Amino acid sequence: MVDRFWVWLGTGVVTAGISAALLAGAGVATATDGDSGDGGGTKTSESADPDGSKNDPGAGVTPGSGLKDDGDKTGDDPAGHQPNVNGIKDELKDDELTDELKDELKDEEVTDDDVTDETIGDGLIDENITDTDGDAGEIVDTIEQPDLGDAGRSNEGQDETQSPSLDQTLVDDLDVSLNSELGDVERNALFGTNSQPGEERALVPLTTKFEELTKQTETPEFAPVAFSAPAAAEVNSLATARPLNIVLDVIGTIVFGLYGFVTRLIGGPPVLPPNSTVTVYSSRLRIDCGCAPGEGEEVPVDWYIPENPDPDRIIYLQHGFLAAGPWYSYTAAALAEQTNSIVVAPSITSNFLAYDQCWLGGAPMHQAMAELFDPDNTALADSLGATPYEGELEWEQVVLMGHSAGGGAVSGIARYMTENGDAGRLAGVVLLDGVGMGGKMAEDLSMVPDEIPVYQLAAPKYVWNMFGSGTDELIEARPDAPFYGVTLAGGSHVDTMRGGNFLIQFSQQLVAGFSKPQNVAAAEIVMVGWVNDMFDGDQSEGIYLDSGETRTIDTPAGQATLVDLPNSLRRPYLLNFLEPLMAAGVGLFTLQPGCLREPTGTAASCAGSVAA
What is the pLDDT of residue 411? Predict the structure, then answer.
């Protein structure tokens, strides 16, 4: 429902803008000023002449209803009257014209020969036959371009190739006006597309000829009116953002920028568990996520180095929504020490309002993360090289591990690594109560080869894991997998989210539900066993249950119960009544990026999109 609100808000803004433009155009079309006594008929692109010596043409006049004569004029129509051909004949009555004028009108009939290319080239018939004082407007000698209201007016001496651009909406309005105001007059309006790619839409003058100026019964004919086809906007890295995207991006930058600052201030640096043999370093990691080639940013990253690291192994640990890497320092240290792997834990923004969608849950970010594991990408090595660590990063395989929304992120990384041709470097994927949104996780994991293991270490279903959405999407992506993972009976969403900051730990436990010590210990045992088996390519250490099996294991903190996935376990929680609203809320976190990167393997670029 929230995402529909944004769509309707954007639609309302656009509609209001169009309405304002039409009203402004109508005001210009009906405005007249100055005196026509200067010879009249000269048209400009301005709405008024500074000295008032020229009137605004086209006020209330229908195209194609002009006259040509050299004589003086007497009498007129009321200002704003739109004469037609029959009306002109009625108004030119004998008792209103001098004998001299009648003779001239009779003698100077316009024939086909009179309307030459030269005549048309000078302009079109002036349509403004009245001035603002109610007197008849002066009839000019040259055929001048018809007034098109606010659609555009040509400058004096302007040729057809320099005619002003015309908005498509005004083109449509002109067509309706011609058909509605001319009554039964025969129409022969033809439209063509003559523009070249990249040109603006141009107006080709409307030409009109009369077989006879007076005493004729035939209706006037209209030469074809041609408008160039709308020019296709070039798509590139500088594509214009929609106003809604810009507003959301500004809001997100401010809100999540302040949130990040406060959490870094309170959360502090990573803290290792007591008696740990692991060393932790902090640096910056370059991630090339952006609309155009070379765009990206450097994010904070923590490196956990075991006492005797195996240079072949690396674990990528991704935090969850609104979290940060240091909040998982105990978990990362345990993984590094017990798997003999280097653990890298970057901190990624949770700003889901970002214009480029380079946030934790955005597909562009997942694609950029996957590129970190390309053999030719040195970003990881450069980041570790910026620390005091003296060793080299010469890994061969990686295990992707993500908590909560981070589980969705590593699923996307696995998908893009596969598309990049780097699936051989992916040892496996571990989801720590991973959460999927809108079917994206299922889509991503379905692209990962079946021989690459993907396991879920879940808590019972409740609001904080979106009632088991991650497990559902894993099963959807791999319907024939022999093993999906386990649920910790009585577990919490934060059982695997362990760090050394007491304030952060207490806050997350208070919000998501307090963890049982035996479940925290069991989670560590399960994930360490899975990771070691993934690197070794077997199932010698991890815990794997049969379909529907329940197993109790001993831990240093007591006995814990594991239940095979899928299952019907649920955790009682105060906010579980929100379950019917969860599906509608997903749309808020799945906004389409304002710009899209090209498919993997090509240069990044930017394309316009709609915020859903």
Answer: 98
